[in-house]
Design goal:
By secondary structure, the protein is mainly β. Helix content is about 5%, strand content about 30%. It comes from Neobacillus piezotolerans.
Amino acid sequence: MSNLPNCPQCNSEYTYEDGVQIVCPECGYEWAADSAENNEDVKVIKDANGNVLNDGDTVTVIKDLKVKGSSSVLKQGTKVKNIRLVEGDHDIDCKIDGFGAMKLKSEFVKKI
């Protein structure tokens, strides 16, 4: 038997390869063969409200955050533009006006 994935539309097990596509004969859905393998490795990062974050999004800080190594505080409501998602505990990399480059946890921001 083949180890092709089930159809994401109808969950049929009778999928087959057609060139670089995988095809479902029951519902006619087609998708790229390489995207089926990469879906397992993608980590989805969500904000405090459960909205999915993407590179380039604008977010707002939802609570006052102490800045490590400084006596200043990042205030609630601070807008952060053009975020970049990274791996690790602090999964947002950004530049904040008045603070510079900083890493944030996604649980302390909400998407605008």
